[in-house]
């Protein structure tokens, strides 16, 4: 059995789809299944059992002998939420519980960290574990992810294999439920569909022109490929960046979305809201050398190809991965 937490969410459900495709059918799906807006993500997938998030600790105590691997993808990911207690409960303490069960029962673990741990990027974007203690995230979500990374590195007892993956800007199918927290591509598609136009944040930084703020965008299918690689690899534990390794502009992203929709680009600019302006990242780019060094050789999908696939195969037909 393979456990996937956050199973009904964006990345977790896509991971289950890939596991099914690879012949893994004994999936234990863990989530808060009361949130019905995510139910479409699991339709058509082969799952052995659904386990409520709050029941996982007890379930593991009873069934650990049958578990082969744990993907801990579930988290509270809302970067606009500022109640630290929510993140302490769902992102830090829950992750500690899973880690301790993996230690006790010798279960291999891959868990989701985040590029939000890097803050404004003043220390760069290298997944050097010795530098993690000095990172300064910009919000409680990033703090919670960094806090768990630091805690994991400090533990004397670790799972025999574990990897924390710092997800950069992930986009792709199955994010229909995410609302404001969905990718810019998702919002661009819907805005262009409705108005034929797209508005982007104006630059308030002298080194960047409007629309040329840059992010490392990674297609969810590439992210899932890395997860599958690590499940089979089970060597070289540690914390790894997971982006494409190439920063691209928001203007590139929106232009590619227009093109994938067969429309002429019509982009205008609005001021970045004052309440987030001082915490706005103008550049992120994952250094992917560490993952490459352990033998991961697959190329990452270009932004243009990823957007074309996402728009034409999924968004245009409201299809799930």
TrEMBL record:
Q: Which residues bind NADP(+)?
A: 10-11, 31-32, 38, 53, 73-77, 145, 170, 178
| UniProtKB keywords | Carbohydrate metabolism, Isomerase, NADP
Q: What Pfam families does this protein map onto?
A: Epimerase (PF01370)
UniProt keyword Transferase, yes or no: no
Active site annotation, chain numbering: 141, 178
User: Known InterPro entries for this protein?
Assistant: Epimerase_deHydtase, Heptose_epim, NAD(P)-bd_dom_sf
Q: Which top EC class is named for this enzyme in its record?
A: isomerase
Q: Which residues form the NAD-dependent epimerase/dehydratase domain?
A: 2-243
Q: Describe cofactor binding as the record notes it.
A: Binds 1 NADP(+) per subunit.
Instruction: State the function annotated in the UniProt record.
Output: Catalyzes the interconversion between ADP-D-glycero-beta-D-manno-heptose and ADP-L-glycero-beta-D-manno-heptose via an epimerization at carbon 6 of the heptose.
Q: Which PANTHER family match?
A: ADP-L-GLYCERO-D-MANNO-HEPTOSE-6-EPIMERASE, NUCLEOSIDE-DIPHOSPHATE-SUGAR EPIMERASE
Instruction: Read off the domain note.
Output: Contains a large N-terminal NADP-binding domain, and a smaller C-terminal substrate-binding domain.
Reaction catalysis annotation: ADP-D-glycero-beta-D-manno-heptose = ADP-L-glycero-beta-D-manno-heptose
EC number from the UniProt entry:
5.1.3.20
- Which family is this sequence assigned to? Belongs to the NAD(P)-dependent epimerase/dehydratase family. HldD subfamily.
Self-association and partners: Homopentamer.
Annotated GO molecular function terms are: ADP-glyceromanno-heptose 6-epimerase activity
Q: What is this protein called?
A: ADP-L-glycero-D-manno-heptose-6-epimerase
Q: Where does substrate bind?
A: 169, 180, 187, 201-204, 215, 280
- Write down the required cofactor(s): NADP(+)
User: Where does this protein act, in terms of pathway?
Assistant: Nucleotide-sugar biosynthesis; ADP-L-glycero-beta-D-manno-heptose biosynthesis; ADP-L-glycero-beta-D-manno-heptose from D-glycero-beta-D-manno-heptose 7-phosphate: step 4/4
- The superkingdom of the source organism is Bacteria
